[in-house]
Amino acid sequence: MEAFGQFIPLILIFGIMYFLLIRPQQQKLKQHAAMVEALRRGDQVVTAGGLIGKVSKVKDDGEVEVELAADVKVRVVKSTIAQVLNKTEPADK
Asked: What is the mean pLDDT of each run of 10 residues along the chain (93 residues)?
């Protein structure tokens, strides 16, 4: 029983680390993945490199085409989208 008592502080430290560091990071990753999956044409986005542009095409292979200026389009990996500034509303059918 004494040996178990020595492990209680380690277990408590791990529990605190889980709730303060690991769990919030997992939630942030889930939110980012949901944001990336919800990307659609017309959304204004910021890339991880700091470029601001409008999504002109969403591809199935993990890429989006972002228009930075008139006739300037770049292919960007979806996971490098840092944030969505303006969401477009779906068109009425």
From this structure: 84 92 93 92 93 93 93 94 83 54
Dist CA 30 CA 36 (whole Å): 10
Domain boundaries defined on the chain? 2-86
Give the end-to-end CA distance of the chain in Å, rounded to a whole number. 69
Written out in words, the top-level CATH class of the domain with range 2-86 is mainly beta
- Rounded to two decimals, the pTM is 0.73
Round to whole Å and give the CA distance between 69 and 52: 9
Contact 37, 25 (CB under 8 A): no
